[in-house]
Amino acid sequence: MGESNILKYVIIILALIISTAGLMVFMIMKTRRQAQKEMAAVLQTLDDALNGFIHEYPYDESMNSAIAERLNKLIQSSGMQKSRALAERDIIKSLISDISHQVRTPLTNILLYAELLKESNLAPDAAELAEKIQMQSEKLNFYMKELLKSSYAETDLIVVSPVSSPVDQLLAGACQAIEVETLKKNIVIRREETDARCIFDPKWTLEAVTNILENAVKYSPEASTVELSVVPNEAFTCIQIADQGIGIREEEQGRIFQRFYRSADVKTEPGFGIGLYLAREILSRQSGYIKVRSEPGQGSVFCIFLPNF
Amino acid sequence: MNILVTKNLKKYYQMGDCKVKALDGINLTIQKGDFLAVVGSSGSGKSTLLHMMGGLDTPSAGKVIVDGNDLSQLSKDELTIFRRRKIGFVFQNYNLLPHMNVYDNTVLPIKLDGIKPDRKYVDEIIEMLGLKDKKYAMPNQLSGGQQQRAALARALAAKPAIVLADEPTGNLDSKTSQDVLGLIKTTSESFSQTVVMITHNDELAQMAGRIIRIEDGRIIGGDFADD
Asked: What is the distance between the alpha carbons of residues B193 and B176, in angstroms, rounded to a whole number?
Protein backbone atom coordinates (compact mmCIF):
# COMPACT_ATOMS: atom_id res chain seq x y z
CA MET A 1 0.00 0.00 0.00
CA GLY A 2 2.78 2.49 0.92
CA GLU A 3 4.57 1.65 -2.31
CA SER A 4 1.65 2.41 -4.63
CA ASN A 5 1.06 5.67 -2.77
CA ILE A 6 4.74 6.69 -3.14
CA LEU A 7 4.55 5.71 -6.80
CA LYS A 8 1.42 7.84 -7.20
CA TYR A 9 3.14 10.79 -5.54
CA VAL A 10 6.28 10.31 -7.65
CA ILE A 11 4.20 10.23 -10.82
CA ILE A 12 2.22 13.34 -9.78
CA ILE A 13 5.42 15.22 -8.87
CA LEU A 14 7.08 14.14 -12.12
CA ALA A 15 4.02 15.24 -14.07
CA LEU A 16 4.07 18.59 -12.27
CA ILE A 17 7.79 19.03 -12.97
CA ILE A 18 7.37 18.12 -16.63
CA SER A 19 4.39 20.39 -17.12
CA THR A 20 6.12 23.22 -15.28
CA ALA A 21 9.19 22.71 -17.43
CA GLY A 22 6.99 22.56 -20.51
CA LEU A 23 5.26 25.76 -19.48
CA MET A 24 8.59 27.46 -18.88
CA VAL A 25 9.90 26.41 -22.29
CA PHE A 26 6.68 27.63 -23.85
CA MET A 27 6.98 30.99 -22.06
CA ILE A 28 10.64 31.37 -23.02
CA MET A 29 9.87 30.65 -26.66
CA LYS A 30 6.94 33.04 -26.62
CA THR A 31 9.09 35.80 -25.13
CA ARG A 32 11.81 35.13 -27.71
CA ARG A 33 9.32 35.28 -30.53
CA GLN A 34 7.96 38.54 -29.20
CA ALA A 35 11.45 39.98 -28.91
CA GLN A 36 12.20 38.95 -32.49
CA LYS A 37 9.00 40.60 -33.66
CA GLU A 38 9.94 43.81 -31.87
CA MET A 39 13.43 43.72 -33.39
CA ALA A 40 11.95 43.26 -36.85
CA ALA A 41 9.66 46.24 -36.25
CA VAL A 42 12.62 48.31 -35.04
CA LEU A 43 14.61 47.28 -38.13
CA GLN A 44 11.74 48.38 -40.35
CA THR A 45 11.56 51.70 -38.54
CA LEU A 46 15.31 52.17 -39.03
CA ASP A 47 15.06 51.34 -42.73
CA ASP A 48 12.23 53.80 -43.17
CA ALA A 49 14.21 56.44 -41.30
CA LEU A 50 17.19 55.88 -43.60
CA ASN A 51 14.87 56.60 -46.50
CA GLY A 52 13.70 59.77 -44.80
CA PHE A 53 10.24 58.66 -43.65
CA ILE A 54 8.89 60.01 -40.44
CA HIS A 55 7.14 57.17 -38.73
CA GLU A 56 3.82 57.14 -37.00
CA TYR A 57 4.57 55.37 -33.79
CA PRO A 58 2.26 54.10 -31.06
CA TYR A 59 2.50 55.91 -27.75
CA ASP A 60 3.33 52.89 -25.66
CA GLU A 61 6.21 51.66 -23.56
CA SER A 62 7.68 49.43 -26.25
CA MET A 63 11.28 49.75 -27.39
CA ASN A 64 10.09 50.33 -30.94
CA SER A 65 8.11 53.35 -29.86
CA ALA A 66 11.09 54.84 -28.00
CA ILE A 67 13.41 54.29 -30.95
CA ALA A 68 10.88 55.66 -33.45
CA GLU A 69 10.51 58.80 -31.36
CA ARG A 70 14.29 59.40 -31.28
CA LEU A 71 14.59 58.73 -35.01
CA ASN A 72 11.83 61.18 -35.81
CA LYS A 73 13.63 63.84 -33.78
CA LEU A 74 16.82 63.08 -35.69
CA ILE A 75 15.11 63.36 -39.06
CA GLN A 76 13.44 66.59 -38.04
CA SER A 77 16.64 68.22 -36.82
CA SER A 78 18.53 67.34 -40.01
CA GLY A 79 15.53 68.56 -41.99
CA MET A 80 15.69 71.85 -40.12
CA GLN A 81 19.38 72.29 -40.90
CA LYS A 82 18.66 71.65 -44.54
CA SER A 83 15.87 74.23 -44.73
CA ARG A 84 18.05 76.78 -42.94
CA ALA A 85 20.77 76.26 -45.53
CA LEU A 86 18.21 76.58 -48.32
CA ALA A 87 16.86 79.80 -46.82
CA GLU A 88 20.37 81.26 -46.70
CA ARG A 89 20.93 80.31 -50.29
CA ASP A 90 17.73 82.00 -51.36
CA ILE A 91 18.77 85.21 -49.60
CA ILE A 92 22.12 85.25 -51.37
CA LYS A 93 20.44 84.45 -54.66
CA SER A 94 18.04 87.38 -54.46
CA LEU A 95 20.83 89.68 -53.25
CA ILE A 96 22.99 88.91 -56.26
CA SER A 97 20.04 89.22 -58.60
CA ASP A 98 19.12 92.60 -57.10
CA ILE A 99 22.67 93.95 -57.32
CA SER A 100 23.14 92.84 -60.89
CA HIS A 101 19.84 94.42 -61.94
CA GLN A 102 20.64 97.66 -60.16
CA VAL A 103 24.03 97.89 -61.81
CA ARG A 104 22.88 96.82 -65.24
CA THR A 105 20.65 99.81 -65.99
CA PRO A 106 23.15 102.62 -65.28
CA LEU A 107 25.84 100.60 -67.01
CA THR A 108 23.73 100.15 -70.14
CA ASN A 109 23.03 103.87 -70.11
CA ILE A 110 26.73 104.72 -69.76
CA LEU A 111 27.53 102.50 -72.71
CA LEU A 112 24.80 104.09 -74.77
CA TYR A 113 25.80 107.66 -73.98
CA ALA A 114 29.47 106.87 -74.50
CA GLU A 115 28.60 105.53 -77.96
CA LEU A 116 26.52 108.61 -78.76
CA LEU A 117 29.25 110.91 -77.46
CA LYS A 118 31.80 109.25 -79.71
CA GLU A 119 29.57 109.73 -82.75
CA SER A 120 28.91 113.41 -82.09
CA ASN A 121 31.14 116.19 -83.38
CA LEU A 122 34.00 116.55 -80.93
CA ALA A 123 37.33 118.26 -80.70
CA PRO A 124 40.20 115.76 -81.00
CA ASP A 125 41.14 115.67 -77.31
CA ALA A 126 37.47 115.40 -76.34
CA ALA A 127 37.10 112.59 -78.87
CA GLU A 128 40.06 110.78 -77.32
CA LEU A 129 38.51 111.06 -73.87
CA ALA A 130 35.18 109.81 -75.23
CA GLU A 131 36.96 106.81 -76.73
CA LYS A 132 38.61 106.08 -73.38
CA ILE A 133 35.25 106.31 -71.57
CA GLN A 134 33.69 103.87 -73.99
CA MET A 135 36.54 101.36 -73.69
CA GLN A 136 36.44 101.47 -69.90
CA SER A 137 32.66 101.09 -69.85
CA GLU A 138 32.90 98.02 -72.07
CA LYS A 139 35.51 96.60 -69.73
CA LEU A 140 33.22 97.26 -66.76
CA ASN A 141 30.37 95.58 -68.58
CA PHE A 142 32.55 92.56 -69.26
CA TYR A 143 33.64 92.32 -65.63
CA MET A 144 30.04 92.60 -64.44
CA LYS A 145 29.05 89.70 -66.67
CA GLU A 146 31.96 87.61 -65.45
CA LEU A 147 31.14 88.48 -61.84
CA LEU A 148 27.60 87.32 -62.36
CA LYS A 149 28.82 84.14 -63.98
CA SER A 150 31.25 83.35 -61.18
CA SER A 151 28.52 83.92 -58.62
CA TYR A 152 26.43 81.28 -60.39
CA ALA A 153 29.43 79.02 -60.26
CA GLU A 154 28.94 78.90 -56.48
CA THR A 155 27.22 75.65 -57.15
CA ASP A 156 24.20 75.91 -54.93
CA LEU A 157 22.87 78.78 -56.97
CA ILE A 158 22.48 76.64 -60.06
CA VAL A 159 19.05 75.03 -59.91
CA VAL A 160 18.13 73.18 -63.08
CA SER A 161 14.75 71.94 -64.25
CA PRO A 162 15.49 69.52 -67.08
CA VAL A 163 12.71 68.83 -69.57
CA SER A 164 12.55 67.33 -73.04
CA SER A 165 13.71 70.20 -75.26
CA PRO A 166 14.74 70.67 -78.89
CA VAL A 167 18.47 70.83 -79.49
CA ASP A 168 18.07 73.02 -82.56
CA GLN A 169 16.64 75.90 -80.55
CA LEU A 170 19.49 75.57 -78.06
CA LEU A 171 22.13 75.86 -80.74
CA ALA A 172 20.31 78.67 -82.50
CA GLY A 173 20.19 80.62 -79.24
CA ALA A 174 23.89 80.12 -78.61
CA CYS A 175 24.82 81.21 -82.12
CA GLN A 176 22.71 84.31 -81.74
CA ALA A 177 24.35 85.16 -78.40
CA ILE A 178 27.82 85.31 -79.94
CA GLU A 179 26.86 86.72 -83.31
CA VAL A 180 28.55 90.06 -82.68
CA GLU A 181 31.87 88.42 -81.83
CA THR A 182 31.78 86.23 -84.94
CA LEU A 183 31.17 89.25 -87.14
CA LYS A 184 34.09 91.12 -85.56
CA LYS A 185 36.50 88.27 -86.35
CA ASN A 186 34.87 87.17 -89.59
CA ILE A 187 34.29 83.70 -88.23
CA VAL A 188 31.78 81.39 -89.86
CA ILE A 189 29.63 79.10 -87.75
CA ARG A 190 28.46 76.03 -89.62
CA ARG A 191 25.45 74.29 -88.17
CA GLU A 192 23.20 71.57 -89.53
CA GLU A 193 19.51 71.59 -88.78
CA THR A 194 18.48 68.83 -86.42
CA ASP A 195 15.23 67.62 -84.91
CA ALA A 196 16.99 65.88 -82.05
CA ARG A 197 15.51 66.28 -78.60
CA CYS A 198 16.93 65.41 -75.21
CA ILE A 199 16.48 66.25 -71.56
CA PHE A 200 17.96 69.55 -70.41
CA ASP A 201 17.15 72.89 -68.79
CA PRO A 202 16.94 75.28 -71.78
CA LYS A 203 18.01 78.43 -69.89
CA TRP A 204 21.04 76.99 -68.08
CA THR A 205 22.16 74.77 -70.93
CA LEU A 206 22.06 77.78 -73.22
CA GLU A 207 24.46 79.47 -70.79
CA ALA A 208 26.74 76.41 -70.89
CA VAL A 209 26.76 76.03 -74.66
CA THR A 210 27.23 79.79 -75.14
CA ASN A 211 30.28 79.73 -72.87
CA ILE A 212 31.86 77.00 -74.97
CA LEU A 213 30.95 78.65 -78.24
CA GLU A 214 32.34 81.94 -76.89
CA ASN A 215 35.62 80.22 -76.17
CA ALA A 216 35.68 78.64 -79.60
CA VAL A 217 35.30 82.05 -81.20
CA LYS A 218 37.68 83.75 -78.75
CA TYR A 219 40.52 81.36 -79.37
CA SER A 220 40.00 80.89 -83.10
CA PRO A 221 41.96 82.84 -85.69
CA GLU A 222 40.20 85.35 -87.94
CA ALA A 223 38.19 84.03 -90.87
CA SER A 224 38.15 80.48 -89.51
CA THR A 225 35.20 78.12 -89.15
CA VAL A 226 33.49 76.79 -86.07
CA GLU A 227 31.41 73.71 -86.70
CA LEU A 228 28.42 72.60 -84.64
CA SER A 229 27.13 69.07 -85.05
CA VAL A 230 24.73 66.81 -83.20
CA VAL A 231 25.39 63.09 -82.75
CA PRO A 232 22.51 61.26 -81.06
CA ASN A 233 23.08 57.92 -79.34
CA GLU A 234 20.81 55.72 -77.26
CA ALA A 235 21.50 57.10 -73.79
CA PHE A 236 23.05 60.48 -74.61
CA THR A 237 22.94 63.06 -77.36
CA CYS A 238 26.31 64.60 -78.15
CA ILE A 239 26.71 68.22 -79.27
CA GLN A 240 30.10 68.79 -80.85
CA ILE A 241 31.70 72.21 -81.12
CA ALA A 242 34.81 72.07 -83.29
CA ASP A 243 37.10 75.03 -83.74
CA GLN A 244 40.29 75.68 -85.68
CA GLY A 245 42.01 77.47 -82.83
CA ILE A 246 45.27 77.00 -81.02
CA GLY A 247 44.33 73.68 -79.42
CA ILE A 248 44.86 72.55 -75.86
CA ARG A 249 47.85 70.66 -74.53
CA GLU A 250 47.12 67.18 -73.17
CA GLU A 251 48.25 67.92 -69.64
CA GLU A 252 45.90 70.89 -69.54
CA GLN A 253 42.86 69.15 -70.97
CA GLY A 254 41.61 68.18 -67.53
CA ARG A 255 42.61 71.44 -65.85
CA ILE A 256 40.76 73.82 -68.15
CA PHE A 257 37.53 72.82 -66.39
CA GLN A 258 38.86 74.00 -63.05
CA ARG A 259 37.52 77.20 -61.60
CA PHE A 260 39.70 80.21 -62.47
CA TYR A 261 42.11 78.11 -64.52
CA ARG A 262 43.57 79.87 -67.53
CA SER A 263 46.23 78.38 -69.73
CA ALA A 264 49.40 80.41 -70.21
CA ASP A 265 48.72 80.18 -73.94
CA VAL A 266 45.68 82.45 -73.69
CA LYS A 267 47.12 85.22 -71.55
CA THR A 268 46.40 87.78 -74.24
CA GLU A 269 42.64 87.28 -74.14
CA PRO A 270 40.50 88.65 -71.31
CA GLY A 271 38.70 86.20 -69.09
CA PHE A 272 38.59 84.78 -65.60
CA GLY A 273 38.53 81.07 -66.32
CA ILE A 274 34.92 80.63 -65.26
CA GLY A 275 33.19 79.65 -68.49
CA LEU A 276 34.19 75.99 -68.74
CA TYR A 277 33.87 75.40 -65.00
CA LEU A 278 30.36 76.81 -65.08
CA ALA A 279 29.47 74.77 -68.18
CA ARG A 280 30.61 71.56 -66.53
CA GLU A 281 28.72 72.32 -63.32
CA ILE A 282 25.54 73.02 -65.25
CA LEU A 283 25.89 69.83 -67.24
CA SER A 284 26.64 67.57 -64.32
CA ARG A 285 23.58 68.88 -62.50
CA GLN A 286 21.51 67.64 -65.43
CA SER A 287 23.22 64.24 -65.51
CA GLY A 288 25.21 65.25 -68.54
CA TYR A 289 28.93 65.70 -69.04
CA ILE A 290 31.56 67.28 -71.24
CA LYS A 291 34.72 66.03 -72.89
CA VAL A 292 37.37 67.62 -75.03
CA ARG A 293 39.56 66.27 -77.83
CA SER A 294 42.37 68.51 -78.86
CA GLU A 295 45.92 68.75 -80.08
CA PRO A 296 48.02 71.89 -80.01
CA GLY A 297 47.79 73.61 -83.37
CA GLN A 298 44.97 71.33 -84.54
CA GLY A 299 42.03 73.07 -82.92
CA SER A 300 39.69 71.57 -80.32
CA VAL A 301 36.47 69.60 -80.31
CA PHE A 302 34.28 70.03 -77.25
CA CYS A 303 31.67 67.29 -76.83
CA ILE A 304 28.66 68.07 -74.69
CA PHE A 305 26.65 65.00 -73.66
CA LEU A 306 23.01 65.49 -72.66
CA PRO A 307 20.84 62.63 -71.40
CA ASN A 308 18.03 61.23 -73.51
CA PHE A 309 16.12 60.01 -70.46
CA MET B 1 36.28 60.25 -46.41
CA ASN B 2 38.31 57.14 -47.26
CA ILE B 3 36.01 54.45 -48.54
CA LEU B 4 38.70 51.93 -49.51
CA VAL B 5 42.31 51.58 -48.46
CA THR B 6 44.79 48.89 -49.44
CA LYS B 7 47.99 48.53 -47.46
CA ASN B 8 50.93 46.84 -49.13
CA LEU B 9 48.57 44.40 -50.80
CA LYS B 10 50.26 41.30 -52.19
CA LYS B 11 49.00 38.20 -53.98
CA TYR B 12 51.49 35.54 -54.90
CA TYR B 13 50.80 32.25 -56.65
CA GLN B 14 53.14 29.29 -56.54
CA MET B 15 53.21 27.58 -59.95
CA GLY B 16 55.60 24.69 -59.49
CA ASP B 17 59.02 26.28 -59.04
CA CYS B 18 57.78 29.65 -60.19
CA LYS B 19 56.39 32.33 -57.89
CA VAL B 20 53.92 34.50 -59.78
CA LYS B 21 53.51 37.93 -58.25
CA ALA B 22 50.00 38.95 -59.32
CA LEU B 23 50.02 41.89 -56.88
CA ASP B 24 53.30 43.11 -55.51
CA GLY B 25 52.64 45.71 -52.86
CA ILE B 26 49.66 47.90 -53.75
CA ASN B 27 48.99 50.98 -51.63
CA LEU B 28 45.82 52.68 -52.70
CA THR B 29 43.40 55.11 -51.09
CA ILE B 30 40.00 55.83 -52.61
CA GLN B 31 37.74 58.63 -51.42
CA LYS B 32 33.96 58.40 -51.30
CA GLY B 33 32.43 59.55 -54.56
CA ASP B 34 35.59 58.95 -56.63
CA PHE B 35 35.25 57.42 -60.06
CA LEU B 36 38.53 55.59 -60.48
CA ALA B 37 39.80 53.69 -63.51
CA VAL B 38 42.50 51.06 -63.12
CA VAL B 39 44.26 50.63 -66.42
CA GLY B 40 46.62 47.84 -67.28
CA SER B 41 47.39 45.31 -69.96
CA SER B 42 46.37 41.68 -69.71
CA GLY B 43 48.14 40.06 -66.77
CA SER B 44 48.99 43.35 -65.11
CA GLY B 45 47.12 42.39 -61.96
CA LYS B 46 44.13 44.66 -62.37
CA SER B 47 41.55 41.86 -62.15
CA THR B 48 43.30 40.43 -59.11
CA LEU B 49 43.19 43.86 -57.50
CA LEU B 50 39.48 44.13 -58.16
CA HIS B 51 38.84 40.71 -56.65
CA MET B 52 40.77 41.71 -53.55
CA MET B 53 38.75 44.92 -53.23
CA GLY B 54 35.52 43.02 -53.48
CA GLY B 55 36.47 40.38 -50.98
CA LEU B 56 36.26 37.71 -53.66
CA ASP B 57 39.77 36.56 -52.95
CA THR B 58 42.14 36.73 -50.01
CA PRO B 59 45.54 38.41 -50.17
CA SER B 60 48.85 36.69 -49.51
CA ALA B 61 49.93 39.71 -47.50
CA GLY B 62 48.70 43.19 -46.73
CA LYS B 63 45.23 44.50 -45.98
CA VAL B 64 42.08 45.65 -47.69
CA ILE B 65 39.91 47.98 -45.64
CA VAL B 66 36.47 48.80 -47.04
CA ASP B 67 34.36 51.40 -45.25
CA GLY B 68 36.42 50.88 -42.12
CA ASN B 69 36.17 47.07 -42.23
CA ASP B 70 39.36 45.02 -42.48
CA LEU B 71 38.31 42.23 -44.84
CA SER B 72 40.90 39.81 -43.47
CA GLN B 73 39.12 39.87 -40.11
CA LEU B 74 35.82 38.62 -41.53
CA SER B 75 34.80 34.98 -41.64
CA LYS B 76 33.62 33.44 -44.90
CA ASP B 77 29.96 33.90 -43.95
CA GLU B 78 30.53 37.45 -42.73
CA LEU B 79 32.34 38.21 -45.98
CA THR B 80 29.38 36.98 -48.04
CA ILE B 81 27.00 39.25 -46.16
CA PHE B 82 29.51 42.10 -46.33
CA ARG B 83 29.82 41.75 -50.09
CA ARG B 84 26.08 41.73 -50.51
CA ARG B 85 25.62 44.88 -48.48
CA LYS B 86 28.69 46.92 -49.22
CA ILE B 87 29.83 46.04 -52.71
CA GLY B 88 28.09 46.35 -56.05
CA PHE B 89 29.46 44.43 -59.01
CA VAL B 90 29.19 45.09 -62.71
CA PHE B 91 30.72 42.33 -64.81
CA GLN B 92 31.74 42.22 -68.44
CA ASN B 93 29.02 39.70 -69.24
CA TYR B 94 26.23 41.36 -67.24
CA ASN B 95 25.41 38.24 -65.13
CA LEU B 96 21.72 38.98 -64.81
CA LEU B 97 19.54 36.13 -63.57
CA PRO B 98 17.82 34.95 -66.75
CA HIS B 99 14.54 33.91 -65.16
CA MET B 100 13.89 37.24 -63.44
CA ASN B 101 12.80 40.50 -64.98
CA VAL B 102 14.78 43.74 -64.79
CA TYR B 103 13.07 45.03 -61.65
CA ASP B 104 13.46 41.75 -59.77
CA ASN B 105 17.09 41.48 -60.81
CA THR B 106 17.68 45.00 -59.60
CA VAL B 107 16.21 44.50 -56.11
CA LEU B 108 17.50 40.96 -55.56
CA PRO B 109 20.54 41.91 -53.41
CA ILE B 110 18.34 44.19 -51.31
CA LYS B 111 15.70 41.53 -50.79
CA LEU B 112 18.30 38.92 -49.91
CA ASP B 113 19.22 41.16 -47.02
CA GLY B 114 15.67 41.11 -45.75
CA ILE B 115 15.18 44.78 -46.50
CA LYS B 116 12.06 46.17 -48.13
CA PRO B 117 13.29 47.97 -51.26
CA ASP B 118 12.67 51.72 -51.48
CA ARG B 119 10.48 51.59 -54.58
CA LYS B 120 10.84 55.29 -55.32
CA TYR B 121 14.63 55.13 -55.29
CA VAL B 122 14.74 52.00 -57.42
CA ASP B 123 12.31 53.52 -59.91
CA GLU B 124 14.48 56.63 -60.04
CA ILE B 125 17.55 54.57 -60.90
CA ILE B 126 15.70 52.52 -63.49
CA GLU B 127 14.38 55.67 -65.12
CA MET B 128 17.78 57.34 -65.09
CA LEU B 129 19.19 54.37 -66.93
CA GLY B 130 16.45 54.48 -69.55
CA LEU B 131 14.88 51.19 -68.53
CA LYS B 132 11.48 52.52 -67.48
CA ASP B 133 9.73 50.77 -70.39
CA LYS B 134 11.73 47.63 -69.81
CA LYS B 135 11.13 47.34 -66.09
CA TYR B 136 9.34 44.00 -66.40
CA ALA B 137 11.22 42.69 -69.40
CA MET B 138 13.33 39.56 -69.17
CA PRO B 139 17.08 39.71 -69.86
CA ASN B 140 16.77 37.81 -73.12
CA GLN B 141 14.48 40.56 -74.41
CA LEU B 142 17.15 43.22 -73.90
CA SER B 143 20.07 44.36 -76.00
CA GLY B 144 23.61 44.09 -74.63
CA GLY B 145 23.69 47.71 -73.65
CA GLN B 146 20.31 47.45 -71.92
CA GLN B 147 21.41 44.36 -70.02
CA GLN B 148 24.51 46.14 -68.79
CA ARG B 149 22.38 49.08 -67.73
CA ALA B 150 20.18 46.68 -65.77
CA ALA B 151 23.30 45.26 -64.15
CA LEU B 152 24.33 48.80 -63.28
CA ALA B 153 20.89 49.45 -61.77
CA ARG B 154 21.29 46.35 -59.64
CA ALA B 155 24.70 47.52 -58.44
CA LEU B 156 23.44 51.01 -57.60
CA ALA B 157 20.12 50.09 -56.00
CA ALA B 158 21.61 48.67 -52.83
CA LYS B 159 23.59 51.89 -52.24
CA PRO B 160 26.85 50.00 -51.73
CA ALA B 161 30.00 51.55 -50.35
CA ILE B 162 31.71 50.89 -53.67
CA VAL B 163 30.77 49.64 -57.14
CA LEU B 164 33.37 47.47 -58.83
CA ALA B 165 33.14 47.26 -62.61
CA ASP B 166 35.23 44.67 -64.44
CA GLU B 167 35.65 45.72 -68.09
CA PRO B 168 32.02 46.82 -68.14
CA THR B 169 32.06 47.62 -71.85
CA GLY B 170 34.05 44.58 -72.95
CA ASN B 171 31.09 42.94 -74.69
CA LEU B 172 29.65 46.12 -76.19
CA ASP B 173 30.29 47.95 -79.44
CA SER B 174 31.94 51.36 -79.28
CA LYS B 175 28.76 53.44 -79.48
CA THR B 176 27.03 51.44 -76.74
CA SER B 177 30.24 51.49 -74.69
CA GLN B 178 30.26 55.27 -74.84
CA ASP B 179 26.65 55.33 -73.63
CA VAL B 180 27.17 52.87 -70.78
CA LEU B 181 30.33 54.60 -69.59
CA GLY B 182 28.56 57.93 -69.71
CA LEU B 183 25.80 56.49 -67.54
CA ILE B 184 28.29 55.05 -65.07
CA LYS B 185 29.89 58.49 -64.87
CA THR B 186 26.67 60.46 -64.47
CA THR B 187 24.96 58.08 -62.04
CA SER B 188 28.06 57.85 -59.87
CA GLU B 189 28.03 61.63 -59.64
CA SER B 190 24.30 61.96 -59.04
CA PHE B 191 24.29 59.42 -56.23
CA SER B 192 27.79 60.23 -54.89
CA GLN B 193 28.61 56.60 -55.59
CA THR B 194 32.22 55.45 -55.48
CA VAL B 195 33.07 53.45 -58.61
CA VAL B 196 36.21 51.53 -59.47
CA MET B 197 36.42 50.36 -63.07
CA ILE B 198 39.13 48.20 -64.56
CA THR B 199 39.88 48.39 -68.24
CA HIS B 200 42.71 47.82 -70.65
CA ASN B 201 41.56 50.71 -72.83
CA ASP B 202 43.15 54.05 -72.06
CA GLU B 203 40.51 56.04 -73.93
CA LEU B 204 37.65 54.52 -71.96
CA ALA B 205 39.60 55.19 -68.78
CA GLN B 206 39.58 58.90 -69.60
CA MET B 207 35.91 59.00 -68.66
CA ALA B 208 36.86 58.49 -65.04
CA GLY B 209 37.83 61.28 -62.69
CA ARG B 210 41.03 59.52 -61.67
CA ILE B 211 43.25 56.98 -63.39
CA ILE B 212 45.69 54.47 -61.89
CA ARG B 213 48.05 52.53 -64.12
CA ILE B 214 49.09 49.08 -63.07
CA GLU B 215 51.78 46.84 -64.51
CA ASP B 216 53.30 43.59 -63.17
CA GLY B 217 51.32 43.89 -59.98
CA ARG B 218 52.53 47.39 -59.15
CA ILE B 219 51.10 50.85 -59.57
CA ILE B 220 53.32 52.58 -62.11
CA GLY B 221 51.53 55.85 -62.48
CA GLY B 222 48.31 57.69 -62.38
CA ASP B 223 46.69 61.04 -62.65
CA PHE B 224 43.66 63.03 -61.73
CA ALA B 225 41.43 64.45 -64.42
CA ASP B 226 41.62 67.83 -62.71
CA ASP B 227 45.33 67.75 -61.99
From this structure: 22
